[in-house]
Design goal:
globular, Rossmann fold, about 40% helix, transferase, about 400 residues, single chain
Length: about 400
């Protein structure tokens, strides 16, 4: 982590006074949230919950977003009565085609963003990720402070430096690993604030109904079909783990966001067949939240080594589930000192061994539930929103 990054650690939720819903409006800041993703992923869910918490505290805000999914950012904000400005943008790949798409989309979005800024006169423009920040320019932001909420571990070389010079932002990184790329920021302009979760809502999630036998022991990976999520490692580990474990079942819950995702999904299905796992592994690719499938599992697995944070880990812990994750980046930070988690090398044999410790020991899984939920409280939505609100107030 850069030596000048401020780490804003969460405080114990029980020590905080409750904030009543629909509190008196806060007139000291006006936040325009900007998101450019054309789908509802983890970054959009994190923003949705932050908007939820700040709205309940009376903060004045508006939203510019490209997430038109049912229950997504635009839909949710409209249901809360928030003014929204819909844009259309693609998920630009890091190549020449993606650059062309970005130029076209930015041109189409500029007038909408400019109108929103002119009408709302925000004190803060909150860009949800580097891609959203790419839509901004000094001319657009006027007198507002810019906050880039960086949720990306990987980014095109030099992009953070360009945004730092162009926008002079305050950067909020969701983990120390994410903060590494911001070495060009002046001191005091970078802080680490972990994601926040509505833990009570997560804990109340009913499990999905699976086709498995009643005595099945279920291991799940919940990750969209992106190469660096390492689904194949999971399949290889399950192939090793299934030996002498007739009750073992596995779920791969994810979505194909684009053609590359569809190609990866098709290859994973073929690999599953080659490994003789068709009677063991269930692919769940339909739209909808992953939480019910995490609630239906006994152990959650996360195979990425370059995860910026790891939302599904906290969701599983909040449900009282043990987790097994490959070491590296956000996983190692989020799961540090967690008794209900096992970190392992990104190797099928190591993963199978780590999973076996939980799969073969039902009393250990039951005993881990309390410590899993306790660890999840470090990432409460209340803690996150209070810390973010304090930062916003310091900039207004």
């Amino acid at each position: 982590m850069p030596h000048d990054a401020t780490i804003l650690l969460p405080v114990t939720p029980q020590r905080q006074p409750a904030t009543p819903k629909h509190a008196m409006p806060d007139r000291t800041m006006r936040i325009l949230f900007l998101d450019s993703a054309p789908f509802h992923g983890g970054a959009q869910e994190s923003l949705r919950t932050l908007i939820q918490a700040l709205h309940d505290q009376g903060v004045a805000m508006q939203l510019v977003a490209a997430d038109h999914a049912p229950g997504g950012l635009l839909d949710d904000a409209q249901q809360r009565g928030l003014p929204v400005h819909a844009i259309r943008a693609r998920h630009w790949p890091a190549n020449a085609s993606g650059l062309w798409q970005f130029v076209r989309d930015r041109r189409a979005c500029t007038s909408i963003i400019a109108a929103a800024v002119a009408d709302f006169a925000p004190t803060i423009i909150h860009a949800n990720g580097l891609r959203a920040a790419m839509l901004l320019s000094p001319r657009l932001i006027r007198n507002a402070a810019v906050v880039i909420h960086d949720r990306d571990l990987q980014a095109p070389a030099g992009l953070a430096g360009v945004l730092a010079r162009r926008l002079s932002p305050q950067v909020v990184a969701i983990s120390g690993a994410v903060a590494q790329k911001w070495s060009l920021l002046p001191p005091g302009r970078l802080c680490v604030i972990p994601n926040g979760f509505d833990l009570a809502a997560i804990a109340a999630t009913p499990p999905a109904i699976t086709p498995f036998p009643a005595d099945a022991i279920v291991v799940t990976i919940a990750a969209d079909f992106i190469a660096w999520k390492n689904h194949r490692l999971f399949l290889d580990a399950i192939a090793l783990l299934r030996q002498n474990r007739p009750a073992l079942r596995a779920i791969i819950r994810g979505r194909a966001r684009d053609r590359q995702g569809e190609t990866l999904l098709a290859e994973l299905r073929r690999h599953c067949t080659r490994q003789g796992l068709d009677d063991v592994v269930l692919f769940v690719t339909a739209p909808g939240p992953a939480l019910p499938w995490i609630a239906a599992t006994d152990v959650l697995a996360a195979m990425a080594t370059a995860e910026p944070f790891g939302r599904t880990l906290i969701e599983a812990l909040a449900l009282g589930k043990p987790v097994v994750a490959c070491t590296g980046a956000g996983h190692s930070e989020v799961l540090a000192d967690c008794p209900a988690a096992t970190l392992c090398a990104p190797d099928p044999a190591a993963i199978a061994t780590a999973l076996a410790q939980w799969v073969d020991d039902a009393p250990a899984r039951a005993a881990a539930a309390a410590s899993a939920r306790a660890h999840a409280t470090r990432y409460s939505l209340r803690t996150h929103s209070d810390t973010m609100r304090a930062l916003f107030q310091s900039l207004s």
